[in-house]
Specification:
The complex is a heterodimer.
Chain A: H1 9-41, H2 55-82, H3 85-117, H4 125-144, H5 150-164, H6 167-177, E1 187-188, E2 191-192, H7 196-228, H8 233-240
Antiparallel strand pairs in A: 1-2
Helix pairs in contact in A: 1-7, 2-3, 2-5, 2-7, 3-4, 3-5, 3-7, 4-5, 4-6
Chain B: H1 4-7, H2 12-29, H3 31-52, H4 56-77, H5 81-89, H6 91-97, H7 102-131, H8 136-163, H9 170-197, H10 203-232
Classes of the chains: A mainly alpha, B mainly alpha.
Chain lengths: ~240, ~230
């Protein structure tokens, strides 16, 4: 199999169009299942009561905010190393979804913080570093769009994404390094301190967020490809058809 | 280009020395820019007591943070012009094409920026600290944290300035890129003085700043060069 076949925007356009509906379907099914488990089946938390259920949105969004940045930076590295066109478009397509998940993580965190900590916002290391992540996403989007030549925007933004990766371990380990108000991780590779149903529901919701991110990225990259390749013959034929 | 270009021997030290001496000479011929940075620093720091009120206890409490924010903004002020002149007249292209180690002159550029904008702030900071009524030992820690932190700002800011060369939205874009990266420097820098003021040893903050500076010294020049190569491509 030729691994580089789908590295061309023209061939990837078709593949993305065929794959996106399946990922949307997966996302919808998993969201339904995850919400059913989380809202109806999972028990009430002994300490926090019903309020803890925001975890089924908050934790998947926070995970995706970091994971998507990492993937975006990997595409950035590909852009810088191999100078491929599609990787730059993929990084651009991921950025808005990553920014959205970062915003959701901060927003649901504020709603969780008010009843449990008594404040919507505290200047704690994890919240601050997550806010910096949001600004990194904004910086990436702004820089990618700041040049006449889109390829130059791709490469400059790719370098920014790679530099910004330094922030990820800071966010992830902030609750360990600074022992702050934000609780430590309940899930690790060694196991979990959570009830099994709660844990399953959280994993299912994370999978749903992941599938949604893939689906939306594929749809967005299709528009970016069309816009970028608008003068190519195949685009004219594809749009006409 | 000046005569020094031919004297550079192709070594790291030569490239650093060439670019530092060139930028210093340019700064000396236009001293107003440096003076403006210093004046801006003092002015921003003086605005806060006027806005918040002159209670000595409150000022001593918030002083370290305000001095750091003012230093951060002042360091940011000179960033857009760091590479813009060389980019506009084609010097930058020649520098990228030249056989001299790009790591060297990129580091020299950041160092030159620090000598012109960062060092004056370090020297001036005890004076501003006195205005806020900081105790003498806190003044020392303040100057030390600025001495470790402002080179870090010059390096990180240099990378962002190189990235945004020739971009639409110039200064505003640069602010969105650079200020989030400055946040850790701000936290540990102002944290050092605050720790000293509340009786906790400031060594931990200073050590982290120094570690960050050492890491940036070996890593960031590569990023600056990569960004400049994208810009002149």
């Amino acid at each position: 199999m030729n691994w580089f076949y789908y590295a061309s925007p023209a061939t990837f356009y078709g593949l993305a169009g065929r794959l996106a509906p399946y990922f949307f379907l997966l996302a919808a099914v998993l969201t339904g299942w995850g919400l059913y488990l989380g809202m109806l089946v999972a028990p009430t938390d002994a300490q926090q009561g019903e309020v803890y259920r925001v975890i089924y949105i908050h934790v998947p969004a926070a995970w995706m905010s970091m994971f998507l940045y990492f993937i975006m930076a990997c595409y950035g590295a590909l852009t810088l190393i191999f100078n491929t066109r599609l990787s730059g478009m993929m990084a651009r397509a991921i950025a808005p979804t990553g920014a959205m998940f970062t915003f959701i993580a901060l927003w649901t965190g504020a709603f969780w913080g008010k009843p449990t900590w008594g404040a919507y916002w505290v200047w704690d290391a994890r919240l601050t570093s997550e806010l910096v992540l949001l600004f990194l996403y904004f910086g990436f989007i702004a820089l990618a769009n700041a040049f006449e030549d889109p390829r130059r925007g791709d490469r400059a933004a790719a370098l920014l994404a790679v530099i910004g990766v330094v922030n990820l371990p800071i966010i992830y380990f902030s609750v360990k390094w600074w022992n702050t108000l934000h609780q430590g991780a309940s899930v690790s590779f060694k196991g979990t301190s959570m009830h099994v149903t709660m844990f399953t529901a959280m994993l299912v919701m994370s999978a749903a967020a992941w599938m949604y991110a893939i689906a939306v990225t594929l749809v967005r990259v299709r528009s970016i490809i069309l816009e970028r390749e608008r003068r190519a013959q195949w685009v004219r034929e594809a749009v006409k058809a | 280009m000046n005569g020094n270009a031919t004297a550079a021997s192709g070594s790291f030290a030569g490239a650093i020395a060439w670019s530092v001496s060139r930028d210093l000479r340019l700064a000396l011929r236009h001293p107003d820019e440096t003076l403006l940075t210093v004046a801006f620093f003092a002015l921003v720091a003086s605005l806060f007591p006027l806005a918040i009120g002159p209670e000595p206890q409150l000022l001593a409490r918030i002083g370290p943070g305000i001095i750091w924010v003012a230093a951060l903004l002042a360091a940011f002020l000179a960033l857009p012009s760091l590479f813009a002149g060389d980019y506009a007249d084609g010097t930058l292209e020649q520098m990228v094409l030249s056989p001299h180690p790009s790591f060297g002159w990129a580091l020299g550029k950041a160092l030159g920026h620090w000598l012109v904008t960062g060092l004056p702030l370090v020297i001036l900071s005890p004076l501003i600290g006195l205005q806020f009524g900081l105790p003498p030992d806190a003044l020392l820690v303040q100057a030390l944290s600025l001495a470790l932190g402002t080179p870090l700002l010059s390096l990180l800011g240099g990378a962002c300035a190189a990235l945004s060369l020739g971009a639409r939205g110039g200064g505003t874009l640069l602010a969105v890129l650079a200020l989030p990266l400055f946040v850790p420097v701000l936290i540990f820098g102002s944290g050092a003085t605050e720790a000293q003021a509340t009786g906790i040893p400031p060594e931990a903050h200073l050590s982290l700043l120094a570690a960050g500076l050492l890491l940036a010294l070996v890593a960031v020049p590569f990023a600056i060069v990569a960004a400049l190569k994208i810009a002149v491509d």
